């Protein structure tokens, strides 16, 4: 048996449930896992589980670690390779990236290929595959997968959930498909699948300085809206719901005028808009909402949303998850 640490790649289109899966892994896995994420601020870890916290990492009492994926993948993996106290490392891939492009990093010294998992939103996957702007991106992600986790099946009638699973199987015949809502059952199913993988240490060679993919030539545009002034809830809902075919993702934490002392998680994807109270603000946390759009009107739509939310200031987005 190899002493190399399995390195699992986690991909999936914007809003497919990657962050929810990361949270579930960190809180429910029986293994000691290090998770490298694109958007560290979006991972909402229960404060009771945190042992130590820094600006770009959180260490949990159960031995798990969540940290930000730096510009250099090697710079992030190198210290983890030498620690020896993790059972698995999971790397989250950009929501518009092809996880196959990061597969060579599974051969980084000290690591072994540990599976390539792609999340897919059961309610949105059909529309996404048919979309003229993002369909190729979503199809490439599915074709790279060894396992597809079909998320949000609990929000659909049984027949629609089965149709989504069949659609994924047709698009990605090489992959196993696990259809289940988030929570303990999905984590148990994922870990059974990961545990059944053969030992692949040394199966791939690391290519010289491969570069993480962030969408290639696809017509994506992103924008970050920042500011401490509370935002009107109804105006926010109208702004995000106004361009459903162009706006692909909105994600972040804001202050709302009806609850300015509360930290509200804002998430918009193909499944719609969700606003969740995540407790009181603490420390130096800054409200921020990252928007991602696709298509010829992408930049115009982002500018339209920014204009509808004058409490926030627009600036370039740091990442695409």
UniProtKB/TrEMBL annotation:
Region (Disordered): 203-223
Keyword Hydrolase listed: yes
A Pfam family this chain is assigned to: cobW
Organism domain of life: Bacteria
Boundaries of every CobW C-terminal domain copy: 220-309
Spans through the membrane: none
Recorded catalytic activity of this chain's protein: GTP + H2O = GDP + phosphate + H(+)
Bias kind Basic and acidic residues: ranges: 203-216
Gene Ontology cellular-component annotations: cytoplasm
Family annotation (CDD domains): CobW-like
Keyword Chaperone: yes
Family, similarity comment: Belongs to the SIMIBI class G3E GTPase family. ZNG1 subfamily.
Protein name: Cobalamin biosynthesis protein CobW
């Amino acid at each position: 048996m190899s002493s190399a640490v399995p390195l699992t790649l986690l991909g999936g289109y914007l809003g497919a449930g990657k962050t929810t899966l990361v949270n579930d892994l960190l809180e429910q896995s029986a293994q000691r896992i290090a998770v490298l994420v694109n958007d560290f601020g979006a991972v909402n870890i229960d404060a009771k589980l945190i042992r130590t916290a820094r600006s770009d990492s959180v260490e949990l009492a159960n031995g798990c670690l969540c940290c930000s994926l730096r510009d250099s993948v090697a710079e992030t993996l190198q210290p983890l390779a030498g620690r020896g106290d993790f059972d698995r490392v999971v790397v989250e891939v950009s929501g518009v990236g092809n996880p196959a492009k990061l597969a060579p990093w599974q051969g980084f010294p000290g690591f072994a290929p540990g599976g390539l998992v792609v999340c897919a939103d059961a309610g949105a996957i059909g529309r996404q595959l048919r979309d003229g702007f993002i369909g190729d991106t979503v199809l490439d992600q599915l074709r790279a997968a060894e396992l597809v986790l079909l998320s949000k099946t609990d929000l659909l009638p049984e027949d629609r959930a089965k149709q989504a699973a069949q659609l994924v199987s047709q698009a990605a015949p090489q992959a196993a498909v696990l259809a289940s809502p988030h929570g303990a059952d999905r984590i148990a199913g994922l870990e059974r699948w990961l545990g059944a993988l053969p030992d692949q240490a040394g199966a791939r060679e690391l290519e010289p300085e491969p570069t993480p993919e962030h969408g290639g030539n696809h017509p994506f545009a992103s924008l970050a809206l920042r500011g401490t002034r509370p935002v009107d809830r109804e105006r926010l809902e109208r702004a995000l719901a106004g361009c459903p075919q162009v706006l692909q993702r909105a994600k972040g934490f804001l202050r709302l005028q009806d609850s300015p002392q509360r930290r509200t998680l804002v998430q918009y994807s193909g499944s719609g808009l969700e606003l969740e109270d995540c407790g009181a603000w603490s420390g130096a946390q800054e409200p921020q909402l990252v928007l991602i759009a696709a298509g010829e009107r992408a930049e115009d739509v982002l500018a339209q949303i920014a204009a509808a939310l004058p409490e926030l200031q627009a600036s370039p987005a740091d990442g695409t998850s």
